[in-house]
Amino acid sequence: MAFLDVLMLGFSEALTPTNLMFCFIGALLGTLIGVLPGIGPTATVAILLPVTFFLPPLGALIMLAGIFYGAQYGGSTTAILVNLPGEASAVVTAIDGYQMARKGRAGAALAIAALGSFFAGTVATIALAVAGPTLSAFALSFGPAEYVALCIFGLLAATILAHGSVVKAIGMVCLGLVLGMVGIDVNSGSARMTFGSTDLYDGIDFVVIAVGLFGIAEIATNLESKEIRGVLQSKIGRLWPTREEFKDSWAAVLRGTGVGTILGVLPGGGATLSAFSAYSVEKRISKTPEKFGHGAIAGVAGPEAANNAGAQASFIPLLTLGIPSNSIMAMMLGAMTIHGITPGPSVIQNQPELFWGLVASMWLGNAMLLVINLPLIGLWVKLLQIPYRLMYPAILLFCCVGVYSVSNRGFDVALVILFGILGYVLRKAKCEPGPLLLGFVLGPLLETNLRRAMLLSQGDWLVFFERPISAVLLVITALMLLTLILPTIRKNRKAAFEASED
Amino acid sequence: MSIKPAANGRDFPDILAGGVLIFLGALGLWAGRDLTYGTPAMMGPGFLPKSLCAIIALIGVIVLIKALSKPHEALDAVNPKPLLILVAAIAGFAFAAERFGFVAATIWLLVVGSLADPESRWKEIFISTAVLTTLGALLFVYGLGVQMPIWPF
What we know:
The complex is a heterodimer of chains A (502) and B (153).
Chain A: H1 2-14, H2 17-35, H3 41-52, H4 57-82, H5 91-102, H6 106-139, H7 144-161, H8 166-179, E1 183-184, E2 191-192, H9 206-224, H10 243-265, H11 271-285, H12 298-313, H13 315-321, H14 327-338, H15 346-350, H16 352-373, H17 377-383, H18 388-407, H19 410-428, H20 434-456, H21 463-466, H22 468-485, H23 487-500
Antiparallel strand pairs in A: 1-2
Helix pairs in contact in A: 1-16, 2-4, 2-16, 3-4, 3-9, 3-14, 3-18, 4-5, 4-6, 4-12, 4-14, 4-16, 5-6, 5-12, 6-10, 6-12, 6-13, 6-16, 7-8, 7-20, 7-22, 8-20, 9-18, 9-19, 10-11, 10-12, 11-12, 14-20, 18-19
Chain B: H1 12-31, H2 47-69, H3 81-114, H4 122-143
Helix pairs in contact in B: 1-2, 3-4
């Protein structure tokens, strides 16, 4: 069986001692930053990107992926124990998880969260393994027009499904696209928007933008206000859930997994959106909705399964189409580019060991997380006591040396300052920097294909509607934009996101 | 920075966002002023950058105009001091890295950078700087082979 063959290939790649080590480091690091408030997975991946430059390609991807899903686990630990969600995706877990902790059932909440996440991670990994080859075979027939439509669909859908104002997010996407065009234009050889600086001829490096917008700006905003520290309310209690708790949660885990796997694939989706949707599904479906908010275990199980499934499933569009769906996937794309891999449908064909190795390592990583999290829970709680003032100098050093190492010049470090300030101002202006990063990584792909498509069609814009796949994608995009104008949907979307704020 | 609520309300984050977008769009148009635009069939190097910058500025105008009539929303407290200290710390590192080497650049970065948190204490700063500089040199320069001299001479 071909499927078993590739799976064997994947596991033989993922089970080499070095790759196992990278997987473990990633999962451990992810848990760590998930637990620590004030530093998120996006910033961590941004900061560690340059370090992965020195690793083998598969090892680098395995480690970065581990950080991402590890952070989903770690974030829920603090959400349950101290009501401080380490990550945005764990915000809903805090609602019922913390109430369970106050009733002395923290152990059960943690165990259900971990087991549910493991189950969801397994299912989403299988979904990736099944969907990957099919989708990428389909995408191999894409021409320039389809790629343009896919980029536009991906970018606009990401702005609609993401948090906050759509108009501002589209502005951010355009800004990212322009930033991606700085440097020498490959078609004409002219220097674009370099302000006369030869240092900018090669363009702005992805790492510079990522570290500036997510690393430095985050440190600056964290230092502005006084640190919030959680207090451990109660004992963790017995870890193993009771028979009743199992009965109440297994269906929620299944539903959460389904919600997360589907929403994770969508552009702009991923862990956070999945968790929120799963929570509202559970509340609506429950026979005892009044229990929600007072320690309903289904309110922990559903969202926890969903956020992990969502995190895993968001790898599907990146690995099969080469289109990242959120800012972490944009970073993964950046990491692949650093190693000379062009993400997209050809990866499965030309470098099967990379794709299947990563898939297999995700499942192994999820299993490792179970071991890292449950027995060592006490250790993670202790880490909450580390004050930020001792952590951020180390983060700062990683940022600066990392950026310097990209091309061994101080110029890039100086450029980081500009993006740090930009990131700070954007935060004050309530603009999410995520879409900017998506625009930046997709800019070159969009421009090359747009030019090619228009050259082939001799300047006829209708070409995008003559080809069926691109026409469908563009029509869906237009419909999504239209629905935003309709008042009822606008209101619902606003309500959904308002619930998710803070 | 305190902003008095205006009678008709004003969304200050959106006013800032609009201003930033207009400024950046205009900056991009100015920076790309010499690039040829071309035609759709033969796009010049300036086709997309110029179009996109115009869209950015336009979005800025829309956001700004809408912000004036939106319900009042104040800016979050702005305390630029940590940011300015971080800028000074990183700028020093960028300048010193190639000229004076890892140790000098890192000590500047960490000592100045630590001042950004008012809770920092000198004793902690000295210890963490010493530890991080040593570990950093071992990890980055010896371990990962980052091309940076260690000492100024």
